[in-house]
Amino acid sequence: MSRTTRSLWIALGALLFTSLSSPAHAGHDNKSFDPDNRKQAVKGFNLTTKGKGAMEWGKEQLERSVITTSWGGGDIEVHDYKTTGVTWAAQTRCKNWNALWTSCDVFTIQFNTAHHHTDFQWLTMGCHEFGHTADLGHRKASNDTDNNSCMRSTTAAHYKFDKHDLNAIKAGT
Amino acid sequence: MRRSKLRVPKWGMWTVAAVAAMAVAGTVTVLPSAKAETRTLDTEPEVVAHAAESMEFESVGQMAVSSTAVVRATVTRIEPGRIVGADETAEPGEESAATQARDVTLEVTEAFSWNGKRTFPDPIKVEEWGWDASGDGYQVNNYSWSEVGKEYLFFLGYSDDPTRWNVISTAGRAEVTDGEWLVSSAEEGSAVKSSVESYQMFELGHYLKRIYDTKNPPLDMPDAVDPPAAPPAGYEDSPLPTAPTTGDPEDLGTNDGSEPTPYPSST
Questions:
Q1: Which CATH number goes with the domain that contains B112?
Q2: Does a structural domain hold residue B123?
């Protein structure tokens, strides 16, 4: 066994260890989540009426994209409960990654019922969080000059995806 | 028959197998059952939770006038904090989606508040998030986990407990570097991040003293942003409209600043 070959095997082992165990989850960009496929099942857990409405609206918005949705567990899990002491209205995080940590198998969406939101804002929150499950990140005023995307960083946004969001979902999933 | 040069040597197989086993064991350690009493809490965030904020600041001055106080502090201790959502998130027999905060203890070295009235003689605690029901660590937006021994500037929201405070938003912390520069927790590309990071600490200290001095307010005093209000009782139980009547703004399509690549939506 040459020294070069031995070095290559050691490097392969180190690479494998790094890719499987790093908390930095190699394989995604740490800024948005790739869903593991374009068929997403949605399930709500003990939702308030507002939370249920936001979930249904978010699912409907996702249906406008290349992603098809159904009701059931295993892909997008939606919860709402009070988290006081924070100012965020809703959040999305990956609960379970696929085996290679390159895309998200199960998402958690969490609406925060500790704050008062208008009906319009609840719709925006639904669209926004479901957008995160489709690999969309936050947009800024400079790249949403017509103010018609739900993916702006606050609840003061529009309640639908715009054409750009739909194109980005198509390109990113 | 000539053997392939890519034949795996016996010791090499064992090396790869051992490393894979270690990696799988590590995954098991950080992804145990959802039972809080048996789970292992991550020591660093493994995922970013993308959150929609209720408050948006255009500048560091606006964030300051919206805060109760701003403190420069060193982190001395971090420990698991409260658990929320344990009862609301699971059907019988199903996994909870509860989350747990991190309690961050701060030794305050400098404080800025309206007319200098707030003092912090004792250590205070702020909350950060957090861990999910499996013990997996997550950070919210660009607000990474604070580290013991590091120095930060915290913009504090209202609190009626003098020892426990909340950071005003995920944009409300800045790390103070060795060179007294500031690294904001606000989202990349945001106006408030640029504003915070345009100051060195001593310059920002002077500015904060100016805007918190109500007898001599600066001419360009920014307007405060109101925090989100508590909901009225029972409001969660009224349905949302099924067909919003609000008119849609004109969709400029590819002319809204988002082209040529679709990926501004992924920043």
A1: 2.40.50.120
A2: yes
Provide the 8-state DSSP code for A35: B
Residue type, B94: E
* Residue B42 domain-assigned (yes or no): no
Cα separation, B86 vs B135, whole angstroms: 13
Minimum CA–CA partner of A85 in chain B: B166
What pLDDT, on the 0 to 100 scale, is given for residue A32? 64
Residue of A15, A29, A86 to mutate for B, most B C-beta atoms under 10 A: A86
Nearest by CB to B51, from A90, A139, A140: name it: A90
Residue B224 lies in a domain: no
Pair (A18, A95) in one structural domain: no
Integer Cα distance of A17 and A173 in angstroms: 27
Both tokens of A125, joined, read 């929150």
| Helices (H), ranges, B87-200 | 191-197
What are the phi and psi torsion angles at A122 (to 5°)? -60, -40
Tokens read off for B238: 């009224």
Tens digit of pLDDT at every position of chain B (267 positions): 333 333 434 444 444 444 444 444 333 333 333 444 568 999 999 999 999 999 999 999 999 999 999 999 999 999 999 999 887 666 666 677 899 999 999 999 999 999 999 999 899 999 999 999 999 999 999 999 999 999 999 999 988 888 899 999 999 999 999 999 999 999 998 999 999 999 999 999 999 999 999 998 888 899 999 999 999 988 888 888 876 656 777 777 767 776 555 554 444
Rounded Cα distance between B96 and B135, Å, is: 12
Q: What is the pTM of this model?
A: 0.81
The domain tally of chain B equals 1
Query: Kind and range of the H or E element at A129?
Result: helix A119-132
- Given a contact cutoff of 8 angstroms between Cβ atoms, the answer to whether A146 and B252 are in contact is yes
Is A43 an 8 Å CB contact of chain B? Answer: no
Domain that holds residue B184: 47-211
